[in-house]
Amino acid sequence: MSNFYDNTKNNNSTDSKIKINKKFSIILAFLLICFAVFSCVNKTRQKTIIIINYNHYNAFMDVEKGIRHELPHKDLTITTFNAEGNYKKLIKIHKLIKNIKKDIIICIGVNSSRIMKNYQNNSDIIISAVTDPVSSGIVKKLENKSENITGVSDKIPINHQLDMALKLNHNTKTLGVIFKNNESNSLAQIQALSDLCKMKRIQLKLIPIEYNTNLKLYLPKKFINNNLKSVDCILIPSDEVVAPRVSEISQIAHKYKIPVIGSEKYQFENGADASVGISYYSLGRQTGKFALRILNGEKAKDMSFETERKVYFLKNNKY
Fold first, then answer.
1. Element (H or E) spanning 277, and its range?
2. Distance from C-alpha of 277 to C-alpha of 264, rounded to nearest angstrom
3. What are the structural domains of the chain?
4. Which of 44, 181, 250, 287 is most buried as measured by Cβ atoms within 10 A of its Cβ?
5. Residues 293-301: contacts with CB within 8 Å, 24+ apart?
6. pLDDT, tens digit, for every residue of 17-32?
7. Which tens digit of pLDDT belongs to each residue from 194-249?
């Protein structure tokens, strides 16, 4: 009788274990590769947006809220800077963000937008709450642009404001406009208003306000008092310097029983007798949608400027 030992089963078992181990190793390697690729994809999806807001005025803060409402909460870093209405601080912010990696820069207000126009790099720039980007010197034209800048304008049909002036005072012969001297948003509106006033034979009286050395609004009451005596109605445009001071201006105007027309709801809430304007929150949401389009692959230079189309009317019940 042979003492032969049958080793076949043992060998088969070992071979099976080796095959299982190989399969396990292949699967593990595949999973590790997938994890590595997924990590890389996640890193490439992480985008950075910088928002530069000129001041804390309610309308501008509404724009910022609207922007954030539209933007995703995942795979996106949003950094906000606020110049608090100080142009010198705006320059410091401009220098600071040079060292920050970003994909999109969103500028709220004409001052923050203008300082960014020379920001030549690969970042797309979106501007918001700028009445006329062309006359402000930010872009050469609103369509078929060469600049990496696009955005949403807060321009409203100026004829609505003039119609409101006539509703508040049917005998309006002279319309006064209070604005910050050389503020491009106001100048664009004044130009359009001037043409309409000529058609309706209404005299347009310009009341420019200057800055003092501390970059705060200088409101010379004697100057305004003297000017108000000769006007029938006051219009305050979407001027990012004068608009926050509508309460002070309205108090002086009401002493002479002169109605004041604003260009957005916060001016109405702070003393203006009526307001014709847009929702700056909606403007912000429209701006945020521009950012989404860029995040999804579009380029700012290929995107035409838009305006907020919905206009609302607010009026004091005494009129």
1. strand 274-277
2. 5
3. 46-155+279-310 (3.40.50.2300), 158-277 (3.40.50.2300)
4. 287
5. 294/103, 294/104, 294/124, 294/126, 295/47, 295/76, 295/103, 295/104, 299/124, 299/148, 300/124, 300/125, 300/126, 300/147, 300/148, 300/149, 300/150, 301/145, 301/146, 301/147, 301/148, 301/149, 301/150
6. 445 455 555 655 555 5
7. 999 999 999 999 988 775 433 345 555 666 667 777 899 999 988 877 888 888 88
